[in-house]
Amino acid sequence: MTSTTKVPFVDLVTMHRELESELLAVCKRVFETAGFIGGPEVEGFEKEFAAFCDAKYSVAVNSGTDALRFALMAAGIGVNDIVITVPHSFIATTEAISQAGARIEFVDIDRRSYTMDPEKLRNYMETQCALDSRTGNYVHKKLGKRVAAVVPVHLYGQMADMDPIMELAAKYNLVVVEDACQAHGAEYFSKKQNRWLKAGSVGQAAAFSFYPGKNLGACGEAGAITTNDETIAKKSAQLRDHGQAKKYYHDVEGYNGRLDSLQAGILRIKLRHLAKWNEQRHAAAKQYDSMLAPLSESVSAPQEMSYSKSVYHLYVVRTESRDELQKHLTEAGIGTGIHYPIPIHLQKAYASMGWKEGDYPETESAAKEILSLPMFGGLNENQLKLVSDAVTQFATASVAK
């Protein structure tokens, strides 16, 4: 935070200062044993994180990207398969699909939640795909490839609408891998099961990122897969460690995707505080909601869906004057972000795929209008008021023009 910054976009310094003695103890313990890769810290974190997510298994890896890639591969997704996701996400979502060998296909988002629109998924399967009676799989009519999986992205801390997605997956024989990289501790109320479900426990597998700015962040790169499927867990564990069933016995060609014990130990400490931090984020979001409610015609607050308990990884407002609002807040010493300014289907990296502007209008509209306000555990009332006052000042001046 610079001397001119009144409210940072995210504050990682205070959190680590408060946990300093506990985190340094982890470093000392790891240094004393010299067990830098794997071992009890990693195994302990895997057990604790699986329990936190209400999942049977967790496999710790070195990033959220590898978590999603390994989960897809372990679930049997690969070359000549199609995986459906949304174009409104960080590019790691699609990198993982491509690097697993599969082809990316998109359906658009729901305008209110910014997550996958189940009706658009239904329409895609009904209009673009046909049953192959020989294999029992659904195949894309034009591409001739098996439509094998769907990756709903739980975005900004809120889960996608999973009941209809799981229903469609069952009907069309699709593997569901949750991209839960922004949803640590988020919950979804399943009407079908009449209970709340944790992110990471709904699909066949899920991927989490522990990038430092996440609700549960490491002090470096880290990620994890959660699953209730023992086979997926075992295959993921092999893939992260050069395909080894045991040391120097390689059943498949794998990758170097292991999590180091220092990061695992740090994550174990932070996991104990995660529920409290998530509650702080939720409380801050509700204060933002209240303060910004009078501005709803010019700056709209994010919508927490009726089925959702969001953990507010990000607090994303929407306005047609996004760039001007961001400039105003920057001048007021308030940090902001845009998640994400260019939809994945319009990124240069995928120019060869033939996607064009207009293909996914809800995503494209959001990309032009969304702005992420400061959000982190410990965001205090004074900081919230500074942000809200600055947004109000901008909105009021805009109306007066």
Account of the 3D structure:
- By secondary structure, this protein is α/β, with parallel strands linked by helices.
- The protein has 2 domains: about 15-270, 3-Layer(aba) Sandwich (Aspartate Aminotransferase, domain 2); about 275-400, Alpha-Beta Complex (Aspartate Aminotransferase, domain 1).
- It is built from 12 helices and 16 strands.
- The strands form 5 sheets. It has a 7-stranded mixed beta sheet with strand order 1-11-10-7-6-2-3, sandwiched between helices. A 3-stranded antiparallel beta sheet has the order 9-8-14, with no helix packed on it.
- α3 runs parallel beside α9.
SS class? alpha/beta
Report the major sheet. Answer: 7 strands, mixed
Using DSSP, what is the number of strands?
A: 16
Note the quaternary state here.
Answer: single chain
Rounded to the nearest angstrom, the radius of gyration is 21 Å
Order of helices and strands: HHHEHEHEHEEEHEEEEEHEEHEEHHEH
- Spatial shape: globular
CATH superfamily of the largest domain: Type I PLP-dependent aspartate aminotransferase-like (Major domain)
Name of the level-1 CATH class of the largest domain: Alpha Beta
Which strands sit side by side, in order, in the main sheet?
A: 1-11-10-7-6-2-3
What is the domain total for the residues?
2
CATH-derived topology of the largest domain? Aspartate Aminotransferase, domain 2
Q: Counting H and I runs of at least 4 residues, what is the number of helices?
A: 12
Q: Give the CATH architecture of the largest domain.
A: 3-Layer(aba) Sandwich
Low-confidence stretches: none
The average pLDDT score comes to 96
Distance between the termini: 33 Å
Strand residue content:
15-25%
Question: Helix coverage percent of residues?
Answer: 25-40%
